[in-house]
TrEMBL record:
Keywords: 2Fe-2S, Iron, Iron-sulfur, Metal-binding, Oxidoreductase
Domain 2Fe-2S ferredoxin-type as annotated: residue spans: 1-78
Pfam families xrefs: Fer2, Fer2_2
PANTHER family: OXIDOREDUCTASE WITH IRON-SULFUR SUBUNIT, XANTHINE DEHYDROGENASE IRON-SULFUR-BINDING SUBUNIT XDHC-RELATED
Species annotation: Streptomyces chisholmiae
Coiled-coil residue windows: none
Gene3D superfamilies for the chain: 3.10.20.30, [2Fe-2S]-binding domain
Keyword Metal-binding: yes
Classification of source organism: Bacteria, Bacillati, Actinomycetota, Actinomycetes, Kitasatosporales
InterPro entries: 2Fe-2S-bd, 2Fe-2S-bd_dom_sf, 2Fe-2S_ferredoxin-like_sf, 2Fe-2S_ferredoxin-type, 2Fe2S_fd_BS, Beta-grasp_dom_sf, Diverse_Oxidoreductases
Protein name: (2Fe-2S)-binding protein
């Protein structure tokens, strides 16, 4: 079967798709977008998170055919058109929230989604929004710092204390 998608604003077509293939497989293997990671294949870790028609989903759980005609946004679509990092990406880099990078795409999309809905989230909001994303490297504090930093900058507030990499969190 053929699957037509709009991915990161570009119309794309995947040909010869088996009806049981996941959206994750189509994105990575057929369309050459490796940002979403294949980790648990059970929707438990969040590494394959993408936006499907505006909603966050685990691409490993979505059959490719279900996405026919859908608007998909992957981590590759976060950066600015001129190549500059999106504010949330820059905050992750500055705070040392990027370690091995396997969970990073899902965390970035979940954080971006949160900040679009709740521009000045409390720590409880951040923890809840990121609860579907598992990370074995960061200990999450640097990730929380990154979301706080991106929120403060979007609001024009001074960078929160502790937002940069500390010696114990430096990558």
């Amino acid at each position: 079967m053929r699957v037509n998608l709009t991915v990161n604003g570009r119309p794309l077509t995947a040909d010869d798709v088996w009806e049981g293939e996941s959206l994750l497989y189509v994105l990575r293997e057929r369309l050459g977008l490796p940002g979403a990671k294949n980790a648990c294949e059970q929707g438990e870790c969040g590494s394959c998170t993408v936006r499907l028609d505006g909603d966050l989903v685990c691409a490993c759980l979505v059959a490719a055919g279900q996405a026919e005609g859908a608007e998909i946004r992957t981590v590759e679509g976060l950066a600015e058109a001129d190549g500059r990092l999106a504010p949330i990406q820059a905050a992750f880099v500055e705070t040392g929230a990027v370690q091995c990078g396997f969970c990073t795409p899902g965390l970035l999309l979940a954080a971006e989604d949160l900040l679009a809905r709740v521009p000045r989230p409390a720590d409880a909001d951040i923890r809840e929004a990121l609860s579907g994303n598992l990370c074995r490297c960061t200990g999450y504090e640097a990730v929380l710092d990154a979301v706080r930093l991106a929120a403060a900058r979007a609001a024009g507030a001074p960078d929160p204390a502790g937002a940069g990499p500390t010696p114990e969190r430096r990558p």
